[in-house]
Amino acid sequence: MAIEAVLFDFSGTLFRLERDPSWLVDITDHRGDPLDVEAQTELLRRMTAPVTLTVELDDEHLDAWHRRDLDPVLHRKVYLEVLRQSGIPRVEQAKALYGKLIDPSAWTPYPDTAEALRRVSEAGLTVGVLSNIAFDIRPAFAERGLDAYVDEFVLSYEVGAIKPEPAAFRIALDRLGTAPEHTLMVGDSDEADGGARRVGCAFAQVDPLPTTERTDGLLNALREHSVL
Q1: CA triple 58-62-65, angle to 5 deg
Q2: DSSP E strand boundaries for the chain
Q3: SS3 of 15, please?
Q4: Which domain holds residue 58?
Q5: Cα–Cα–Cα angle for 223, 165, 220, nearest 5°?
Q6: The model's pTM
Q7: Which residues touch 60 (CB under 8 Å, ≥6 apart)?
Q8: Which of 50, 55, 94, 193 could be a cystine partner for 83, CB 3.0 to 4.6 Å?
Q9: Last residue of a domain, which of 38, 72, 105?
Q10: Where does a domain end: 73, 105, 137?
């Protein structure tokens, strides 16, 4: 059936938190040594992993992990613990890095994000962003004029539901006013975003590569589903 609406994930799909060396200039490990490039890359991976738990947590922090995208307080709590276990023992340094994670202006759009959103919107389709997240990502779009192409932002901490729960997708579909069989979900996680299939949506998966390595993943995904 013809696609009338497209839902996009945020992290690893439309935007990515790229490694910025300036963030880590003053960051040191437990020995007081600067982090090497490999350690910096792994640190950012742990900060942005959509589903996979990268460290072992006690019961208190494990509960916070499972509910992190529903509550900004729990999100901050568990990610400071993840950073501590990832070799950033100094609280002030962990807080500074966490601040980058939740700063919308620190996120980088993929090279084809603007074109993909624009072309879908101008084709007359309804556009939504459905994200498991505990902070407001709208400024990341507004700063680049991309909010003009998005009809609805459905953020887990605002609606009280997270992907792959069917409720998250149903809320988004209700907001867009579209039927699941006419809706395509585009995301980087088969586990989280792929949950759209359970409510009857089509699903297109993109690879959450660095933005310099994935230049047309969104456009290709849309073409494969005859959206463009």
Answers
A1: 145
A2: 5-8, 15-16, 108-109, 126-131, 152-155, 183-187, 202-205
A3: strand
A4: 21-105
A5: 10
A6: 0.89
A7: none
A8: 94
A9: 105
A10: 105
